[in-house]
Amino acid sequence: MSLAVGTLPGAGSASAGRRGEQLLRRLARNRLALAGLVVFSLVVLLAVLAPWIAPYSPVRTDFTAYLQPPGPRHLMGTDELGRDVLSRVIFGARASLEAGVIAVGLAIGAGVPLGLVAGFYRGPLDDGLMRLTDAMLSFPQLVLALAVAAVLGPGLAKAMIAIAVVLMPVFMRLMRAEVLTQREREYVDAARALGAADRRIIWRHLLPNSVAPIVVQGSLNVAGAIITEATLSFLGLGTQPPTPSWGSMLNAAQQYLTQAPWLAFWPGLAIAITVFCVNVAGDGIREVWDPRTR
Predict the structure, then answer these.
(1) Rounded Cα gap, residues 174 and 180, in angstroms
(2) How many CB atoms are closer than 10 A to CB 154?
(3) Which residues pair with 78 in a beta bridge?
(4) Backbone phi, then psi, for 46, in 5-degree steps?
(5) Backbone phi, then psi, for 78, in 5-degree steps?
(6) Residues of 230-246 as b/e, b for ≥16 C-beta within 10 angstroms?
(7) Residue 161, CB half-sphere, CA atoms under 13 Å: how many?
(8) Per-residue pLDDT tens for 35-94?
(9) pTM over 0.90
């Protein structure tokens, strides 16, 4: 009696484990992407451990330390209210990372199921959803995010919803395109021949085989979400004072650019480093998943 290897218990998990090891080895060979991932992980660690790492409270004012330049006591100086800039930069990472990760997660959670259903069933549902995405994608992302945030009102949670609304059509179209390709493959025909229901075909077969481009696109969109959150906070539609945010810190610093340039330098540098690291890590993930680069 013969038994196919694919039906052996644990064969699928073993194959997935080998594939995971191959992907990790490929990522390790891209030193720039690996360095970006390490630095981004350190930023995440700083944000998580902010209450224990920050030397001062990010919101406590001290008018005796008004606009002090960087020095031994305050390594990044103080702001117009005597608050420690280093502590505010560390705590400000929380808002940016929450916006980057949570907003992209919400966009994926809403866009992927709609793209799956639209690509699998086609018809009027597909036409209606695609016309909606065409209308949304016709606007620049930042302009649309500003419009949605203005309607929802100020606040970090509402800013994340606005960013998710803007990014959702991207994932919807990407998933739909991938499903249109996968639904014509032999394994889908085999599942239908075995009597599998549409729900099982969609969630057990199409989704796992279409997830790679979503992971890549999601990693790349985190950087854009961080910039969008900083822009919304800069304009007063994101994180509200006194909660620190890199964007709101830049907004407050514009009045003191000549008197205290460090107020704009440090949050601007934090945004630049974080976005750069996310971008190079995302490029590395794209190269790892792209079969044309193997």
Answers:
(1) 10
(2) 16
(3) 84
(4) -60, -40
(5) -125, 165
(6) bbbbbeebbbeeebbbb
(7) 13
(8) 888 999 999 999 999 999 999 989 888 888 888 899 888 899 998 888 999 999 999 999
(9) no
Residue with tokens 């919807």: 172
Helix axes 156-182, 85-121, angle to 10 degrees: 30
31 band by pLDDT with thresholds 50, 70 and 90: confident
212's tokens: 């790679």
Contact partners, residue 287, CB within 8 Å, separation at least 6? 26, 30, 33, 293
Distance separating alpha carbons of residues 279 and 23, to the nearest angstrom: 18
For residues 167 and 225, the answer to whether their CB atoms sit within 8 Å is: yes
Distances (CA, A) of 176 to 106, 110, 170, 212: 17, 13, 10, 13
SS3 for the chain, per residue? CCCCHHHCCCHHHHHHHHHHHHHHHHHHHCHHHHHHHHHHHHHHHHHHCHHHHCCCCCCCCCHHHCCCCCCCCCCCCECCCCCEHHHHHHHHHHHHHHHHHHHHHHHHHHHHHHHHHHHHHCHHHHHHHHHHHHHHHCCCHHHHHHHHHHHHCCCHHHHHHHHHHHHHHHHHHHHHHHHHHHCCCHHHHHHHHCCCCHHHHHHHHHHHHHHHHHHHHHHHHHHHHHHHHHHHHHCCCCCCCCCCCHHHHHHHHHHHCCCCCHHHHHHHHHHHHHHHHHHHHHHHHHHHHCHHHC
- Is residue 294 within 8 Å of residue 270, measured between CB atoms? no
